[in-house]
Specification:
Order of helices and strands: HEEEEEEEE
Helix content: 10-25%
Structural class: alpha+beta
Number of strands: 8
Strand order of the largest sheet: 1-2-3
Distance between the termini: 96 Å
Radius of gyration: 28 Å
Length: 108
């Protein structure tokens, strides 16, 4: 018995194969896309004790911004010593200062 494929069947098989390959290799599909992991830590206000400057710390997990966590309390972000990740420290503002926009400022 001899099998014959017509042009339409051949075109449909090729189209389905191309779509299947495109789906599997797409980033939103099931393909595994290798990504280069870059280890770094950048702190705009240099340190976990820079409470008079609003800063941000950036590492491979994203950007972490200094913020007020209480009326007189700052969550200060910075690079963890000896590491390439951001950490945070909860710091009380000095007497006579309050937290505003992620930094300690003199009370008016």
């Amino acid at each position: 018995m001899k099998h014959q494929f017509n042009t339409t069947t051949t075109a449909v098989v090729i189209a389905v194969a191309i779509l299947a390959i495109a789906f599997v290799t797409a980033q939103t599909g099931f393909a595994v896309t290798p990504q280069t992991q870059v280890d770094y830590c950048l702190d705009s206000d240099v340190g976990l004790d820079a409470t008079h400057t609003t800063g941000a710390c950036e590492d491979t997990n994203g950007v972490h911004t200094d913020m007020c966590v209480g009326e007189n309390t700052v969550q200060e972000t910075g690079c963890l010593t000896g590491s390439k990740i951001c950490a945070y420290d909860i710091v009380q503002c000095p007497i006579g200062e309050t937290c505003s926009s992620g930094r300690c400022v003199a009370t008016a």
